[in-house]
Amino acid sequence: MKMKKVLALTLSACMSMGLMTGCGSSSAGSSSSGGSSDSKVIKIGVFEPTTGENGGGGFQEVLGIRYANKVHPTVKVGEDEYKIELVEVDNKSDKTEAVNAAQKLVSEKVSVVLGSYGSGVSIAAGQIFADAKIPAIGCSCTNPQVTQGNDFYFRVCFLDPFQGTVMANYATDNGAKTAAIITQLGDDYSSGLGSFFKTAFSDLGGSIVSEEQFQTNQTDFKAILTNIKAQNPDIIFAPSSITTAPLIIKQARELGITATIAAGDTWENSTIIENAGDSAEGVVLSTFFDEAEPANDEAAAFIEGFKTYLKENKQEEIIPAVSALGYDSYLAAIKAIENAGSTDTTAIRDALKDVSIDGVTGSISFDENGDANKDMAFIKTIEGGKFKFLTTTTVK
């Protein structure tokens, strides 16, 4: 939601499943709290990929949600305090599996769903949540189609039209006049973000000199990169998954391509640096959050506490933006439950429309489509084997 050199990434995502029993969460197939305590338990579904193409990023999002549950384990509903139980399902980065995972959450009678990492699986499951009248809050699913025509889907991240535009702004502000675009065929996130970048870059006077597509699970990109090299673009915009990114980066540099390589939020993952090595130097990306620039007191407290949590769980003490978004989606959910004063899912959906919180990634409220009112992105580069904050940017 693969060539031996990146197999370690998939194995890492699978090994991370060992943490799946932490923080009071349960899998969809397990038994829930029984007896009379059921009346004081409210379930929040966690709809994320922890395996498959996007398993690494999905797991980072899960960690943010689990930490939020640790910090805020209960919620007031009227005069009663309810324990919050996370019900986690793995949508396996696959649209068909996403439908099955969504149905499991419906059968578990969750009151809210959080997720998913990956717009395609979010879109695939959206109607199931709407039909069941269960509100869903996307963390990092940026494609506009996630919320379009779905009164039960919200999100705490910015959208791809915005993200594509700010990356085009960054490219032109830094002297790029020509660009090549590489997208994954059939992937809603990749194709959508590539299209929005193309429109924005062209509107700013830039020229798109090459557009290339690749198949899911493709590992050899030298043919399309050779085509791109012949056009000598100033920048290559290649929004793609964590597993694909290091292959594109390394093979481009092996062919002698010196153009800036850029992408969107999915590339903010340390495994890309690990697998691409020195070739990753100079890569540029847009993202939602930077720990060096806390937006408010909530963000400052999150940074300190989440780093401790990561250390306790033997995870790298770097805070990905998607973990912060996972935390914020949880905050939005419990605020809506409190404001609704009810466990009724439609009442929670109605309350979400007027929710306003100071989240880790900034102030969050929702527009008429359920999309977050956000107007700023963080631009980062890879320097010295680490992600380095460059600037913040908005739409011109």
UniProtKB/TrEMBL annotation:
Keywords: Signal. InterPro entries: BCAA_transport (IPR051010), Leu-bd (IPR028081), Peripla_BP_I (IPR028082). Pfam families: Peripla_BP_6. Transmembrane segments: none annotated. The keyword Transcription does not apply. Residues 42-385 form the Leucine-binding protein domain. Residues 1-28 form the signal peptide. Belongs to the leucine-binding protein family. PANTHER family: LEUCINE-SPECIFIC-BINDING PROTEIN, PERIPLASMIC BINDING PROTEIN OF ABC TRANSPORTER FOR NATURAL AMINO ACIDS. This is ABC transporter substrate-binding protein.
